[in-house]
Amino acid sequence: MPSRRPSRRHDFLARAVPKLRKSRELDDPARERARVERWHATLPSALDRPLPTGLVPLFGRRFAVVTEDLDGYAVHTITPRHTAVTGTLLYVHGGGFMAPIDPFHIRFACRLARRLGVRVVMPDYPLAPEHTWRDSFDSMLSLATRLAGDEDALLIAGDSAGGGYALALALAMRDAGGPVADRVLLLSPWVDLSASTPETPEFAARDPWLFLGKINLYAEWWAGSADEVTRPEVSPALADLHGLPRTLMLCGTRDALAPGCRLLARRAEETDWDLTYLEEPDLIHVYPLLPLIPEAGRAWRQITSFLD
């Protein structure tokens, strides 16, 4: 584990981002559900929702975007212009399963597209609490399987909730016995929605962004019920991990999801799965996606070396 301390820029964003996102602990489950549903009601429909490209200068000149209907929700394919495209990256966005694609996801995906010479396929999957994993998993699996069959090497990536979803898709592709991903990238993934690790409350107490009450509530929303949170489609860290594609996982320790990542890494050591886990002390949730911090630059070099 590196002995370096977080940068001042990181510590500034660790304070600023949660404030900008109005992050706070759960007050009342019913009130939280009503708040999220009101917010969702203000969003365009799943097929009409545009990509939030505010953090990507000259987006239209540098990238072509095609949006298609997949089982009632949008799938965006982002292709870099003036770049030789040689493959595909399926990127599953985070947001606690209750927030749509945001500019940080687009910025990171577009950087990967240009750097690796790939098109990025980004589904805007149906969100909780109105929807559970059952409303998109089969169609997402079909999409991933088709892309793996069409490409010499499909890359699958995801951050936070999207990281858990990405791993669950890799598991399902393995079990289906058809085409599989070549490599998987997981950024601060939410892989254990049951919060089964006893150290989770301790880590959550240090996390300025994620709060345990909301984590548990959003997990139940996505699973459909508290009894379903241990399913492999929901908590892939608890599944059989044999025979998975080569994977890189990054997480910081100022992150309530770090215990789940550690659990996944421990369980991977008991299998044939080639998982590399890079853990950074005192860094916050999804730090590789944050702009202008040296820790994200270091993560970028680790990620592109792995995916090249």
Elements, N to C (H/E): HHHEEEHEHEHEHHEHEH
Mean residue pLDDT:
95
What shape does the CA trace take?
Answer: globular
Share of residues in strands: 15-25%
Q: What is the number of domains?
A: 1
Number of helices: 10
Radius of gyration: 18 Å
What's the β-strand tally? 8
CATH class: Alpha Beta
Overall structural class, as computed from helix and strand content, comes to: alpha/beta
Q: Stretches where pLDDT falls below 50 for ≥5 residues?
A: none
The major pleated sheet works out as: 8 strands, mixed
Across the major sheet, the strand order is 1-2-4-3-5-6-7-8
- In CATH, the topology is named Rossmann fold
CATH architecture: 3-Layer(aba) Sandwich
Helix content range: 25-40%
Query: By CATH's scheme, which homologous superfamily applies?
Result: Alpha/Beta hydrolase fold, catalytic domain
What can you tell me about this protein's structure?
With 308 residues, the protein is α/β, with parallel strands linked by helices. Helix content is 39%, strand content 19%. It is built from 10 helices and 8 strands. The chain has helices spanning 8-20, 29-42, 59-62, 103-116, 137-150, 161-176, 200-206, 212-223, 258-268, 294-307, and strands spanning 63-70, 73-80, 87-92, 118-123, 154-159, 183-187, 246-254, 275-284. An 8-stranded mixed sheet has the order 1-2-4-3-5-6-7-8, with helices on both faces. It starts with 7 loop residues before the first helix and ends with a helix. The mean pLDDT is 95.
